[in-house]
Amino acid sequence: MLGKMQRHSSEQKSVVFEQAGVFIHLIVNPDEEDKLLSGTLSVYEESGYKYIKWRQASSAPLPSDEHDTQVLSGTSSAVVAGDATHVAPVQTQEITSELRQPSVSPEPNSSDPDWTVVADSNKHEDSFEMDVASSESQQTSPFNYDFTVDIEDLRYIRKSKKGLNWKYLVLELKDGANLPTLHFHEGGSKNFLKAIESYVMLAQSSKVTRTLEVMPHNNNALTQSFDELNLFGENGQQTSSQRKGFLETPISSAYSGLSKVTNYIQDFLNPAEVHYQTRPKHERATLVPDEATEAVGSSRIQIKQEEDTAGGFEMITCADLGPRSEPSRSLPINEEFWNNHKDEEGRIIDVDEVKRSIFRGGIDSNLRKEVWKYLLNYYIWDKTSAELKEHKEIKEENYYRMKMQWKSIDADQESRFTAIRENKSLIDKDVTRTDRTRIFYEGQENVSLKLLNDVLMTYCMFNFDLGYVQGMSDLLSPILEVMGSEVDAFWCFVGYMDIVQHNFDLNQRGMKVQLRDLHTLIQYMEPKLWDHLEEKESSNLYFCFRWLLIRFKREFSFEDIQTLWEVSWTGLPCRNFHLVMCLALLDTEKSSLMKEDCGFTEILKHVNEMSGKIDLQATLRKAEGIYLQLAACRKDLPDSIRQILDL
């Protein structure tokens, strides 16, 4: 049975992943076959903590070889399987660092461990537990290899090599000890990692192959930043409920003060950088000359394990990016171009050429109302004019049906409908402060504000699971102004939300993934800038959060944001071109950002002051040049870069 994401609620425990048939392999004698122990792997919350637990199945096979059980002294124990029929109950003992299984970091290419059992004391800080029971307490097995570990005690997760019959994972703790290797004979490893990612960030290690770094949240730092920045109250007066609300639903709470968002999400939505003790620099060996790393940056030097190389040797390669060009931009497509790409019945022909032309120059303002409907999947490219007319009538009927659903809810019903009540309250607040300097939205009795409200409320009926999250009004506002019709605006907004919906996930997974990918791009393309950001405690990239969240809505003029959005809706040259735009902006500003006196606060201030001053066409040229530069050497790029850029 494959592991599935699930949630069982109780007063104290909530299970988000559970899968039976996950094995640990025990080597009793190197000359004999492995002993397999089957068990159930789970990820759950209990009393505010998040745990991983492996529980041995009651039908697990007994180790039958007659070897002495070895017990290591201390307050934890490591047990080597053997004949336990004469073993008395053993107290939980401590294992010394010399006896622990080698960790991932110092020996990234050592052979994978078959199993190790480590148990610490029952303090929560050392929350890794393993029970060793006697045959008197368990009839089916002389040993109980169950273990439980706090997710925030993880340091690395090492993945299996490609091409194996099944996948396995090695979990390494912060103190360097490894948990028993988990073998997923029946699949499910991806769902297991996805469950863990709902609590911590997993980022591909740039130093160790096939290894994910685990970086936990830092809520204490966030609370401290609330106090220092006075975010939720006047003169430092904050309520515990306000803090709790932000910690539990940081995305939703962040939107209410979006202009400050880059200031106060520091050290939360993405985990804080975790620094571990390492040898002093003068005690470390140098694999590559300093002049080589200085020239290209250490991030571009890759250490790849050669699958066919005897002895596990590695090959060190360095990607040569070559020169970067700045492709020219074109004029927006006009009515003549558009009409030339319609057949006699109104179908759009050569859609790829249309998209390429939009990517190169955007769309003339008087055409946006029609072309946006295609880009946002409201209209279908190959439908005739007659078919589109019928299609629009159906969409219009569906819109007003959903609109009537929420409008027909009276005050008595609303009093027992929490979701509608909360959505309505949030929308009322946001609508009154969205783009009010625009003529289209100015004034107290502006009908456009009512349309904005109605479209957002109707979207709540269209997408019950997501509902309304603060910030969506920023995305709808330009669309409604261009369309001028609530029905057309609604279905175009639905299309845009299909693209960016994961920005608003409650578990922030969408934003975490984008920040992680941007981290990878900057570290590879601009290693010196990355080193500076790390030194200035800005490597979490929260100063880019607003850029990603509402797709640069606050960074460009109203006209420019329409051009940028329509360019991005083409999906060219890759699905993550907005991340390359971020990279281009940072490349342009890196001389200012890398000043010695430019720390975390100064970086935030500088990025916020860029708003409204960015040259869109120059940035688009630079971003495309970066993409083409990388695409030209795709064979030499790390897998992570190729995946981000669809190369």
| Helix vs. strand class | alpha+beta
Stated plainly, the CATH topology of the largest domain is called: PH-domain like
Please report the total strand number as a whole number.
Answer: 15
Q: How much beta, percentage-wise?
A: 5-15%
- The radius of gyration over CA amounts to 28 Å
Note the overall shape: globular
The pLDDT mean sits at 76
| Helix content class | 25-40%
Stretches where pLDDT is under 50 for at least 5 consecutive residues are 1-10, 59-141, 219-288, 290-295, 305-316
Q: For the largest beta sheet, what order do the strands appear in spatially?
A: 1-2-3-4-8-7
Distance between the termini: 34 Å
Describe the biggest sheet? 6 strands, antiparallel
Describe this structure in words.
The chain has 647 residues and is an alpha+beta fold. The chain has four domains: 4-215, PH-domain like (Roll), CATH 2.30.29.230; 286-318, no CATH class; 320-351 and 505-647, Orthogonal Bundle (Cyclin A, domain 1); 367-503, putative rabgap domain of human tbc1 domain family member 14 like domains (Helicase, Ruva Protein, domain 3, Orthogonal Bundle), CATH 1.10.8.270. 38% of the residues lie in helices and 13% in strands. The strands form four sheets. It has a six-stranded antiparallel β-sheet, with helices on one face. It has a five-stranded antiparallel β-sheet with strand order 11-10-9-13-12. The relative contact order is 0.07. Residues 1-10, 59-141, 219-288, 290-295 and 305-316 have low confidence and may be disordered.
